[in-house]
Amino acid sequence: MWRILILATAVFAADSDLPRRAEAILSQNCYSCHGSSAMAGLRLDQQGDLADGIIVPGKVEESRLWVMMSGKGRAMMPPTGKLKDADLAVIRDWIKQGAKWPEKSESKAAAPKWWSFEPVKNVAPPVVEGSWARNDVDRFILAKLREKQLQPSAEADRPTLIRRLTYDLTGLPPTMAEVEAFRADKSSDAYERLVDRLLASKHYGEKWGKHWLDLVRYGDTAGFEQDPFTLYAWRYRDYVIDSFNADKPYDQFVKEQIAGDELFEDPAQQQGTGYFAVGANRDMLYKVEDINRVESLTDFTDTTAGVFLGLTVGCARCHDHKYDPIPQKDYYRLQAVFAPFQKSRVFLHYNNARGYDLNEVGRNFKLFDIGSELARLKKPYYERLRKERLAKLSPEFQAAFAAEEEKRTPEQKAIYEANFKKINPSDDQIWAVLNDADQAKLEHLKKRLLSQFGSYAPGPFSPGVTDVGREAPKTYVPGKGTPYGEEVQPGFLTALGGGAIAPPPLDSLTTRRRAALAEWIARPSNPLTARVMVNRVWQYHFGRGIVASSSDYGARGSAPSHPELLDYLAKRFVDDGWSVKKLHRMILLSATYRQVAAIAPGVRDKDPENQYLSHFTRRRLEAEEIRDAVLQASGTLNPKMYGRPVVPELAAEELYGMSQPPGSAWPVSSDREEHTRRSVYMLVKRTYRMPMLEVFDSPDGVLSCSRRESSTTSTQSLSLLNSKFTVDQANALALSAKGDPEAIWKAVLQRPPSPEEVAMAREFVTKQTALLGSAPAAQRELVRGLLNTNEFLYVE
């Protein structure tokens, strides 16, 4: 009897709570589209929509809401994916019992917020039994593993750990000597000291700076059809590397980039505003300057929200966001923050910069004069060579080249485009046929160039932005109110507390709008800033973020796999002074990070994406890591840091199809020692990526890249086998190793070969020597083969 009463009481309590639970499910999954924005004319956020059978109280199968939610209709709702079975059961029972609403049902404005907009919670680590957990990170992970009936894996061996750590923190493999030293170190804190040494390495900033450059769509050229060079973008790249090496507090890093010019006097900090200048330059995108400016403002708004807040605000540019609580008006309030921008230069040394500008006028005047003389010298030879080549062609070809560009027929255009490189002589071909008198003139011009430009160096300034002043351009929501639209004032996102930006003080030289935005984003109470950065660091270490959609924390993004851990790390991050290196250290010292990559039986069925981390997820090296590792293995890596972008020599076939003549679009650096520097210092050209990097999924630099793809294609193997780069580096290693298989194995794989591998290598070299007629060439083939192994290309 007592059991029946207890059960009846429980059922009654559950039934009475159904309206509240049903509304919470609808609020989280439906209100963003079917709230105040009333997408498809449907609202569910007040008392539900009874029209057209959306909800038929007491009749589940006749309610269109249930039909769509259960997947039985033509469209699945919500579009983010089918609800959990438990949530569906609540909706079904709620409709069945009359679809009653809570007595104090409120509008969407007071409905529960999406999880990422809620304040970061002060979470205590769970209590777990056993000795596996090394720190608080492990306690959260182990609790979730046990909840999912999974077990953590054993710790990886020392060679695996040092290779994993060294790549993760520096982007380079360890040396064989470093592997052997770590293996031999029996002290209890050997691993901790290794982590600290790598975090202190100058190469740390090169590796983690590259992650940030991906996010802020860094490039050394402006992009689009003409793709001109952005001469000083590299100073921002160096600023980012320096910031990571110095463990600059992340909140300060944010402020320097968004408003360094308004918040700081130090030019080194103002360099951060290069963030606005290193993206694709939209100044020449259209013929109308105002449209180009709008495109730039759109880029600033979308990128800033995505990088620092993890929000896809761009969806609200044309209408209220369909999934997140971001109305169109909020989008333009945020865009108004950037409306007063104007591009500028940050003078790193003001007096030197003024002197550089004055001298540049004189240099350019002399350069114009030298250029004019060179053009006069070349012209008769160019015309003569071209005429001689055309004379050998058919009248049809001659007519195609003689016709004016605008008047060529389609057939003539095809002929011209296919043959103009063969007909029009290059500079080298012209210099080769100069007569003695003109050769002497050329030598004289060379001497003038050397005397005038022998000490020519980049100016002491960096790209950035500043503010036009107190009279900022007005911002409008298009299509509302006046012919220009509805005017809006700068402000913050309503979903995150909103608020307008106060006018600047009377003595302010700028609007200080970006300063206000920077302070708002970097404040400790912002629910997104710390969560987003913590999640990015986690993603780069484990291959997947706690929130898998690392730049989308909205309703269309992924829910966190470990929400309590995310909040714990975010809170610690802020409490530790926004130190990225302290965050690294906590993650890397965990037992979670030290696990083997081997997958236990049955785990793949329960957790196919390893989001609960019962083992380490092996990953393929990134494009830059592959190139740098090849250089280090061959012994040719140039460790020089910073400076102008390097343009390495490429094979002719790699430059085939470049829209501009390779000499101008790919101006090879004259110092060949520079060609083997780390990939982070290579030229990032938006319309042409180095084939070695492109084939291994380097981003294009046009949009923010929060996570790189990791494809597997045949062109990757072909590149590592046959490219000029690989052949040259394989030759260098084969010569330095003097044919010793053990030396080659240690250089490429950081381990000695087994006796079986030595025997196979010697047999291979013997056969290849007979085929190629050269022992060094055969040893080069051995190196190329090892560079294509999974052991080289993947981190376990």
Shape, principal axes of CA atoms: globular
Distance between the termini: 60 Å
Mean pLDDT: 87
Radius of gyration, whole Å:
31 Å
> What order do the strands of the largest sheet run in, or round the barrel if closed?
1-2
Q: Would you tell me the structural class of the helices and strands?
A: mainly alpha
Unreliable parts: 1-14, 105-111
Counted by DSSP, the helix tally is: 33
Largest sheet: 2 strands, antiparallel
By DSSP, the count of extended strands is 6
What helical percentage do the residues reach? 40-55%
Describe the model.
49% of the residues lie in helices and 4% in strands. The chain has 796 residues and is mainly α. Among the domains are: 2-108, Cytochrome Bc1 Complex, Chain D, domain 2 (Orthogonal Bundle); 137-202 and 589-620, no CATH class; 350-459, no CATH class; 623-795, no CATH class. A two-stranded antiparallel ribbon has the order 1-2. It has a two-stranded antiparallel ribbon with strand order 3-4. The protein has a two-stranded antiparallel sheet with strand order 5-6. Helix 16 packs across helix 17 (410-423). The protein is globular.
What is the topological layout?
Layout (H helix, E strand, L loop, with lengths): L1 H28 L1 H4 L29 H6 L15 H12 L39 H12 L10 H13 L5 H9 L5 H10 L3 H13 L17 H13 L4 H14 L3 H4 L18 H21 L18 H11 L2 E7 L2 H42 L3 H8 L7 H14 L3 H5 L4 H18 L7 E7 L7 E8 L2 E4 L24 H10 L6 H14 L20 H13 L4 H9 L14 H4 L12 E2 L2 H12 L27 H4 L25 H4 L19 H9 L1 H14 L3 H9 L5 H18 L2 H13 L2 H4 E2 L1
Antiparallel strand pairs: 1-2, 3-4, 5-6
